[in-house]
User: Fold this.
Amino acid sequence: MIHEPLAPRLIQVMENLRESIRTAGRQPEDVVLMAVTKTHPYETVMEAYHAGIRLFGENRVQEIIAKFPPPEERPHDMQLHLIGHLQSNKVKKIVPLVDGIDSVDSVRLASLISDTAAALGRVMPILLEFNTSGEDAKSGFETESQLYDAIDAISKLPGVSIQGLMTIGPLNGNQADVESAFTRLAELRTRCMSRYPSTSFSTLSMGMSSDYALAVSAGSTCVRLGTVLFGRRD
Ligand SMILES: *Cc1c(COP(=O)(O)O)cnc(C)c1O
Assistant:
């Protein structure tokens, strides 16, 4: 296979992202680009790193273990987050290998992460995943009151630190559905901020290759991009 250089594509995507941010009347520094490198080798991760990306997302624990060197052998300013569903039996393995877990969807999971991180003398930054699409196959808290109950419990745990909310928009391609899902999460975050003034909700992680412009316009602070950067996955 001919290897296409990443840099020109990355520059194009960054330009498009910047244009979406400007159109939304927001500032470039308000939105972070996370490169989602699942299915791509570590060489691709490093190519993106050298092109200026610092935040990386992977959705499977096994793949992180197989692909990434241990944290002390990665560039010191590389940030790796788990963005996919985490099973409780994999918590002990993943906590030492990542800088954040963006897909926390239960109090029990947060509590296991907290215990593991605390035993290592760490506090793990986490995002709470909310299911904005109502699709059963998706993870995430389902209702506002469920989310508040979880925040009440999770904010007391010593080994995790809530940083905000994350969602995967509906994948049905209907723009109105996608917009309303993102708007819903943005409004939920605003309510969380006033309800929990001592908890950080600085991150609103939403938007993928097909819908990041809509997410930016709804207030996303972190877009998670795979396909537009690295091409289609097999
Ligand atoms: C794969 C993945 C992405 C990136 O999806 P693309 O459509 O390839 O940009 C973003 N978020 C999560 C949780 C993912 O699993």
Q: What stands out?
A: The CA atoms of residues 114 and 221 lie 25 Å apart. The mean pLDDT is 95. The longest strand covers residues 160-166.
